[in-house]
Amino acid sequence: MSVWIPLVAVTAFWLLVGAGGPLLVPSGPNRGIIQTMIVLTAVCCHMFWIIVYLHQLNPLIGPQIPVKTILWIHERWGDAKGELVSK
């Protein structure tokens, strides 16, 4: 549930910038170019944010621990059955 809150909030913000920003551009010879730049900026910023955000939810590669470290942890901590190891 908490994943949807930032997803909806940031999407609404960039939708507001992309849809409302071009309406605020004053008339002039470059109005169409400025409107296009505002829309493209909003789309690119939203795409960059959503790709990074969603990638953090499900990383492709987890932490890689060397075998020597795993054996050392097993030797020091025991077999993780909830018992305290005092050495």
TrEMBL record:
Residues 1-19 form the signal peptide. One of its GO terms (cellular component) is proton-transporting V-type ATPase, V0 domain. It is found in: Endomembrane system; Membrane. Keywords: Hydrogen ion transport, Ion transport, Membrane, Signal, Transmembrane, Transmembrane helix, Transport. GO terms for molecular function: proton-transporting ATPase activity, rotational mechanism. It holds the Pfam family ATP_synt_H. It is a multi-pass membrane protein. The chain crosses the membrane at residues 32-54. It comes from the Eukaryota. InterPro entries: ATPase_V0-cplx_e1/e2_su, ATPase_V0-cplx_e1/e2_su_met. Subunit of the V0 complex of vacuolar(H+)-ATPase (V-ATPase), a multisubunit enzyme composed of a peripheral complex (V1) that hydrolyzes ATP and a membrane integral complex (V0) that translocates protons. V-ATPase is responsible for acidifying and maintaining the pH of intracellular compartments and in some cell types, is targeted to the plasma membrane, where it is responsible for acidifying the extracellular environment. V-ATPase is a heteromultimeric enzyme made up of two complexes: the ATP-hydrolytic V1 complex and the proton translocation V0 complex. Belongs to the V-ATPase e1/e2 subunit family. This is V-type proton ATPase subunit. It comes from Acrobeloides nanus.
